């Protein structure tokens, strides 16, 4: 027979398991998703409107307008971070050397990252949040994303650099947008997915044909990097940015995480790298590797800079090979802890928006008007379709044709 304390303990743990089971089931419920999406959409639109109200401030006090917009942007993007960190419980492990770690979040940096996963952007944002640069984070993003409600509109005020991925048309606007960032009042990370599009087998095959034509070594895990964006970023942010963070992101157990999976409360394990010696258990967390490269060591000349980037991608390919072989990146883990701010911001919006929603629905039902009830129902369906379209923007299957054809005919 078990002693009394053990029985209590077993009972306690059973209770815990049951509670966790219920929570897990709750996370898969459509109603929960609807509430989460409603909060995201309504809070996002409110914030977009407040951002719009900052427009008159720009000519008077640009730096203040930028700082306000960083906070407002944080309030939107941190909701997706909270969804990843607190709702799905996804764990993020960082492999990096402790000396570089001290500088993260305290300097401007260009982040060069592989582009394989549908939730790359959320995982990137999570690391930004942990180092306090989420509100100010930047990216060279495809123009199509600027039309996505809430996020795309928010990016306009955060001075995100957009490109059509047609260099002749992009050259001028990209340079101008980069020049604007030279006096940015907050530390920022500038994200570059040099591959230009997400990895698919077809895009990989075509890009390796291009590599062969150019006499470049083949890559196994990456597409051939597009060098123009990187070179122009380095040229225009020299003196503003101090380092390039060569980053590689992987998810454990060959998982391909999705935003719908995260919304359903599925826990993933991400890994990001810099250099490691400590022994760790690699079967539990997602993983990312970061190498800090001082910007002065990158060649100024455009063709040398392009060659440098090709060399970097060959090294990145070796890191990936190491990860595939051993299930881990080399180097010590120096992971920043999860902070409460994203969760608190989320709870704030939930408290603010869910109560009026319940009251409104109650009033509608009590009104007894079939017309009003039908209108509300149709409105809810329209919102769900809108959100589903937004989620579709993250899905690789629905991705662009960029890189599906050789040379310059490869647009959307
Ligand atoms: C540490 C944790 C992370 C921190 C995160 C920090 C911040 C987070 C912030 C925000 C998070 C949100 C994330 C949102 C993500 C959205 C990302 C995107 O939208 S990715 C798509 C847009 N971005 C890019 O494309 C950037 C990379 N591209 C470039 O730099 C391009 O050069 C360009 C500037 C876009 C211009 O492209 P274009 O195609 O017009 O010209 P290129 O000269 O580059 O291409 C021609 C060149 O390529 C060769 N070629 C032809 N076909 C292919 C092929 N299939 N594959 C490879 N190469 C090909 C061709 O021969 C030409 O060669 P050459 O240059 O020698 O003439
Ligand atoms: C709390 C939050 C609730 C969330 C509810 C759902 C909200 C939906 C939010 C949708 C966010 C849309 C932002 C999309 C950012 C996707 C970035 C991305 O990865 O783009 C792909 C491009 O790089 C390359 O494109 P391809 O050439 O591969 O094609």
TrEMBL record:
GO terms for cellular component: endoplasmic reticulum membrane; mitochondrial outer membrane. The chain crosses the membrane at residues 30-50, 145-163, 343-365, 371-391. Pathway: Lipid metabolism; Phospholipid metabolism; CDP-diacylglycerol biosynthesis; CDP-diacylglycerol from sn-glycerol 3-phosphate: step 2/3. Its main location: endoplasmic reticulum. The keyword Transmembrane helix applies. It is a multi-pass membrane protein. The keyword Iron-sulfur does not apply. It is found in: Endoplasmic reticulum membrane. It catalyses: 1-octadecanoyl-sn-glycero-3-phosphate + (4Z,7Z,10Z,13Z,16Z,19Z)-docosahexaenoyl-CoA = 1-octadecanoyl-2-(4Z,7Z,10Z,13Z,16Z,19Z-docosahexaenoyl)-sn-glycero-3-phosphate + CoA; (4Z,7Z,10Z,13Z,16Z,19Z)-docosahexaenoyl-CoA + 1-(9Z-octadecenoyl)-sn-glycero-3-phosphate = 1-(9Z-octadecenoyl)-2-(4Z,7Z,10Z,13Z,16Z,19Z-docosahexaenoyl)-sn-glycero-3-phosphate + CoA; (4Z,7Z,10Z,13Z,16Z,19Z)-docosahexaenoyl-CoA + 1-hexadecanoyl-sn-glycero-3-phosphate = 1-hexadecanoyl-2-(4Z,7Z,10Z,13Z,16Z,19Z-docosahexaenoyl)-sn-glycero-3-phosphate + CoA; 1-octadecanoyl-sn-glycero-3-phosphate + (9Z,12Z)-octadecadienoyl-CoA = 1-octadecanoyl-2-(9Z,12Z-octadecadienoyl)-sn-glycero-3-phosphate + CoA. Its EC number is 2.3.1.51. Keywords: Acyltransferase, Endoplasmic reticulum, Lipid biosynthesis, Lipid metabolism, Membrane, Phospholipid biosynthesis, Phospholipid metabolism, Transferase, Transmembrane, Transmembrane helix. One of its GO terms (molecular function) is 1-acylglycerol-3-phosphate O-acyltransferase activity. SUPFAM superfamilies: Glycerol-3-phosphate (1)-acyltransferase. GO terms for biological process: phospholipid biosynthetic process. CDD domains: LPLAT_LCLAT1-like. Residues 109-231 form the Phospholipid/glycerol acyltransferase domain. Converts 1-acyl-sn-glycerol-3-phosphate (lysophosphatidic acid or LPA) into 1,2-diacyl-sn-glycerol-3-phosphate (phosphatidic acid or PA) by incorporating an acyl moiety at the sn-2 position of the glycerol backbone. Exhibits high acyl-CoA specificity for polyunsaturated fatty acyl-CoA, especially docosahexaenoyl-CoA (22:6-CoA, DHA-CoA). Belongs to the 1-acyl-sn-glycerol-3-phosphate acyltransferase family. This is 1-acyl-sn-glycerol-3-phosphate acyltransferase delta.
